[in-house]
Amino acid sequence: QVQLVESGGGLVQAGGSTRLSCVASGLTFSNYDIGWFQQAPGKERDVVVDISWTGGTTYYKDSAKGRFTISRDNAKNTAWLQMNSLKPEDTAVYYCAARPAGYFGSDVAWNYWGQGTQVTVTS
User: Whose CA is closest to 23, among 7, 47, 46, 37?
Assistant: First the structure.
């Protein structure tokens, strides 16, 4: 019943931008923190950015800081990842994920995952 559906991404030139969207259904969106994760070939799936249920608190991986921006609109059940100044090392499958609010800053497992969307950055 719970679904997270990513869209956006694709093939982008280095230095370019793209915006990923995550639309949730089957849950009360405002009760969940939302994260964006990346998984490059042969690499572990790692948090890129996440945002608290109110949008008042955000976390950015060091490599994303200053380049990526996470946002959400609870009325639209949607979160976005704006990705600017893209680098080839950003190439990965990007996933959105959700977990109940209240665990921000912890390593508690994320409950729900999307299928992922590919971002490929060419040099």
Answer: 7
